[in-house]
Design goal:
homodimer; alpha/beta; Rossmann fold; 2 domains; seven-stranded parallel sheet; five-stranded parallel sheet; 10 helices; about 30% helix; elongated
Chain lengths: ~300, ~300
């Protein structure tokens, strides 16, 4: 606990983050005098050999693979990532993708004539629909309020199946296969691991069905792309809205580019220019917590790797 | 009040509506024996000279202009329209249009290559944005929960400015000009009247601004189309997502069809195939209310014309 903690901001003196440190009750100091470091750059420029006085480091990204690979993160102090800080922005993109699919916006956006009967498959509505969120971590949970406000029922899948607020049901990961049949639409938001590779294949796509939309805002590897192309061609899946693809970037001429019921946004669910505000909010909150001796948000657990 | 009201269903014996009448506590009878009529057809086929025993007629549409013109609606009994029954479906479309604009989905839907930096204007987010709903009647009000769940602040405009639940502020219609400056994005949901004709012109579009989106799910006449084309060309408005246009249908070759930041859905916010369920819900509810002697939903006031 430190009433007015000494915080080093690097590598640059970003105005928004300097303000956030001050709003959180901190004062900006040189690295040698710092109790805490707020780092807004990459792993490659991170200072070697932090002073022992540094008890906490705030990293700027939600994923910390590059920091682990670089060996930056040690066990002698607390490290926090920005995990969760960007959840709302990514969740909004997922809801936007699902609505664009369900409401026939993909076909309309491509039309250059007034063709009410030819702009795609019949529209549906989320009102009364069941939406599965596969991987209801911070991002997945952040989708629930908007989906339920639109009248959808949410079924969540999490690692252990502990209840997700606002969901009518939460299943553990080992029962994920059940939700593809049960849901009208499926949003993939799970981390990319060896267990989630090609989690959504031909059987899962067929189970979602000819009126259903698949949304992927996680990683391309979670969906079997060849199976997806086939399901769309055969009409066993209604449509797909993807912010991530496999391979990524999706190559020119790939059949998904011209499929009628496919929407691809080029990995822009969390665009850099929208991250500044979210990181500043997190920095302010964590500096305030640090000053008050409270638990910090986004503490890294090296044994879990995030 | 009538415990088990005698309801005539016409012109066809639609199964979903027959079930709704029964679920509401009614029994189906011939017209001559009816206390109430549920009419699922147009004005032209409506029976001439209803029996005096008919105390209530449920019409299938939200707007009743055609019934007023046909002289069907008399003062000797209660008439109800389906006003409000379809609000959620239309409101969902408005939210879908706004998100498609804000999240860069219009450009992405048209892209046939992975072009993260070229798919349109910089994305923004509804989180922390101010969204004005101009005309917060049943449809406008139905948008508020989803918009606030996404973190937007809603400013509403209604005829008299009485508070709208969930909005941070509600202005009366004679102060509508204030909201275009105040809001980041504007959704037009007001009825088409002589007072709302070209309500959104060059000044209002410039006030919404270069990052803002205009959404119109009301009637095309509320927006000055020529001023809109000009504002988009000059970049004084960020983009427009329109379910209705003026003229409508928008003619082939119109500049809006090929403007980069314009999304046009061809008046499909309330598609016929999604109306059945909503009408059945309204019929069930109103039959139950009729049986219980309660106020009916959507009572027509001939003096107001709706």
């Amino acid at each position: 606990m430190s009433d007015n903690p000494a915080v080093h901001l690097g590598p640059d003196q970003r105005e928004d983050l300097a303000d956030a440190v001050r709003r959180g009750g901190g004062r900006l100091v040189e690295l040698a005098d710092a109790e805490a470091v707020v780092w807004a750059g990459g792993a490659s420029t991170f200072p070697d050999g932090l002073p022992e006085s540094v008890r906490w480091v705030q990293l700027p990204s939600a994923g910390i693979e590059s920091w682990i690979e670089a060996g930056t993160i040690d066990e002698s102090r607390t490290w926090t990532s920005a995990v969760g800080a960007y959840s709302d922005v990514v969740a909004e993109h997922a809801v936007a993708l699902l609505l664009a699919g369900v409401r026939g916006i993909v076909g309309s956006a491509r039309a250059t004539r007034w063709l009410p009967d030819e702009v795609g498959p019949p529209q549906s509505t989320l009102k009364g629909a069941t939406v599965a969120i596969v991987g209801a971590g911070g991002i997945g949970r952040a989708m629930v309020p908007a989906l339920t406000a639109l009248g959808a029922e949410v079924v969540a899948v999490t690692r252990r199946g502990l209840p997700v607020e606002g969901a009518v049901d939460t299943l553990p990961a080992d029962r994920v296969s059940e939700v593809f049949d049960r849901a009208d639409h499926v949003i993939v938001a799970a981390p990319a691991t060896s267990e989630t590779k090609a989690l959504v294949g031909a059987d899962e796509l067929a189970a979602i069905g000819a009126r259903g939309w698949l949304v992927n805002i996680a990683r391309g590897s979670l969906v079997d792309t060849d199976a997806l192309v086939e399901a769309l061609q055969d009409g066993t899946l209604g449509g797909a809205a993807l912010d991530v693809t496999d391979p990524e970037p999706l190559p020119d001429g790939h059949p998904l580019w011209t499929a009628p019921n496919v929407l691809i946004t080029p990995h822009v669910a969390n665009p850099a220019h929208l991250q500044g505000g979210a990181l500043a909010d997190r920095v302010e909150d964590n500096v305030r917590r640090f000053a008050a001796g409270e638990d910090l948000e986004g503490v890294v657990d090296l044994s879990r790797g995030y």
